[in-house]
Design goal:
single chain; mainly alpha; 2 helices; elongated
Length: 66
């Protein structure tokens, strides 16, 4: 099972030490860039859903073709 936790920066080290002490817990760090990318994707999906339901107008985008 995978679990994603959101922890304040000032508490993260303490939590990581506790989790590392548990033999069956495997820890994979997620880079800050990946976290930002995930948040941007979530925001884009939320905006797309608003456009689909008609609660927001879509903005025009230009497609670049080389």
């Amino acid at each position: 099972m995978r679990v994603e936790l959101e922890v304040p920066d000032n508490k993260a080290d303490a939590l990581l030490e506790v989790l590392k002490s548990i033999s069956f817990v495997k820890i994979n760090s997620i880079s800050h860039e990946n976290t930002l990318l995930k948040e941007e994707i979530k925001e884009a999906i939320a905006e797309l859903n608003l456009v689909k339901t008609g609660k927001k107008k879509s903005s025009k985008s230009k497609r670049i073709v080389k």
